[in-house]
Amino acid sequence: MDKARVAVLISGRGSNMAALIYAGRADDCPYEVVLVSGDKPDALGLSLAAAEGVRVARLDARALGADYWEKLNRQLAQAKVDLIALAGFMKIIPVSFVDKWAGRIVNIHPSLLPKYKGLHTQMKALDNGDRVSGATVHLVTSELDSGEILGQVEVAILPSDTAESLEDRVLIAEHQLYPRILARYASRPYDAAWIEQQVDALAARLPEVIRKSNHGAPGWGVGNEKAAKNFAIMADHFHGEESVGLLVRASGPDEMNGLIEAQPEIYFWPKYYGASGWLGIRLSRRDVDWDQVADWLERSWRSSAPPRLTKLMRIADQF
Length: 319
Ligand code: GAR
Prior knowledge:
This protein is 37% helix and 22% strand. By secondary structure, the chain is α/β, with parallel strands linked by helices. The protein has two domains: 4-186, Formyl transferase, N-terminal domain (Rossmann fold, 3-Layer(aba) Sandwich), CATH 3.40.50; 192-317, Aspartate Aminotransferase, domain 1 (Alpha-Beta Complex). β4 (83-86), α5 and β5 form a beta-alpha-beta unit. α1 packs parallel to α7 (163-186) and α8 (192-203) crosses α10. The chain is elongated and about 70 Å long. The chain starts with a strand and ends with a helix. The structure holds glycinamide ribonucleotide (GAR). Glycinamide ribonucleotide (GAR) binds at residues 10, 12-16, 87-88, 108-110, 171, 174.
């Protein structure tokens, strides 16, 4: 697995940034921090990142105004960033930026979300008489502190705690949580079970789809239980292949050879199955275009579905 290239965005001290940088140095860590930036050019953490030999982009969001997000995007592109980790980054992110990076921005928040979004989280926990506080790593969506929760850690509240003492202890927990969860997230594109779940969700959108294994491999069929015909089959490291792939039906060897020649990083000729018109799509990659996979599934479904179903699809296409 190639290491995911991570940019960390900060606004201040950068202690979580430091935890991410140090964890990323382990040989077996699936990510590395390749860029640190943020909205304040004199944020403390930027000097630490520079001293650690990490590339730093000092951007001044206030001075740049509307150009800020474009400048940041340029830096991220230059550093060939796969994932963005927010670590005490206090600027509200516009929808256009979130959309561009959908599913590739994670954040750490000092509460057990969905409790206490926003600021002053430890004060709120104390005021409510909570017994535990904690921290959450979640995906960033356009709604503040509301994306999919990727991991959490609880921190006990002591009777003697003040907001400051609790913040200090939650921070220790954050430093443990963030690198671990980011590592797990960075390896998700290579996880066969996760890939299968994504394909399953896309296949389930098509009519009369059932799970139908094929020679022991998970697969999907169309039609009723007895007569169902496979239109997609998982190919996990199939006969010496390096990747987790999906087999779908193409129109024949000409189309398959053309695709494989043009995009060998995406398409492959599956042993045994290729001869009967099955094309392999590599899915254990960081840049899978899931819309394209959905299109292939639909095409493959159409070529396997009984006429009574494809007829309905053709009628639906006209509208
Ligand atoms: C951390 O406690 C982080 O959870 C919090 O800011 C602190 C940054 O500290 N983030 C938020 O409140 C985001 N809503 P650090 O700069 O030392 O990592």
